[in-house]
Amino acid sequence: MDPDTSKKVKDLLGLMDGISSDIDIKAELDRIISRIDTLEEQVAGLVQRLDRMDKLHRDKQELLKTLRKELKNLFP
């Protein structure tokens, strides 16, 4: 093979390797983005659960406060 053709073949093979690497990187980025989306959804779900638990806790504290007042009124 003449040197010019050999160089062109090497360049083409290098280009193909670069494209293959780019495709692999894109696939990996897509997997990472998908995982991030899943984690964001899970975090949002946890935030909602914590908000509900916080509200329940506040409601129970108010109930306890009311019960304390009622008990104090029963036994002055």
Short description:
This protein is mainly alpha-helical. Helix content is 95%, strand content 0%.
Q: Can you characterise this structure?
A:
It contains 1 helix and no strands. With 76 residues, it is mostly helical. It is 95% helix and 0% strand. The chain starts with a helix and ends with a helix. It is rod-shaped, with a radius of gyration of 33 Å.
- Structural class, please? mainly alpha
What is the C-alpha radius of gyration, as a whole number of Å? 33 Å
Q: End-to-end span in angstroms?
A: 108 Å
Coarse morphology: rod-shaped
Report the sheet with the most strands, covering strand number, pairing sense and barrel closure. Answer: none
Q: How much β-strand is present in the residues?
A: under 5%
Q: Would you count the extended β strands for me?
A: 0
- Summed up, the helix count is 1
Order of helices and strands: H
Oligomer: single chain
- Unreliably modeled segments: none
Average pLDDT across residues? 90
User: Percent helix among the residues?
Assistant: over 70%
List the SSEs and their pairings:
Blueprint (H helix, E strand, L loop, with lengths): L2 H72 L2
Describe the structure using short key phrases.
mainly alpha, 76 residues, 1 helix
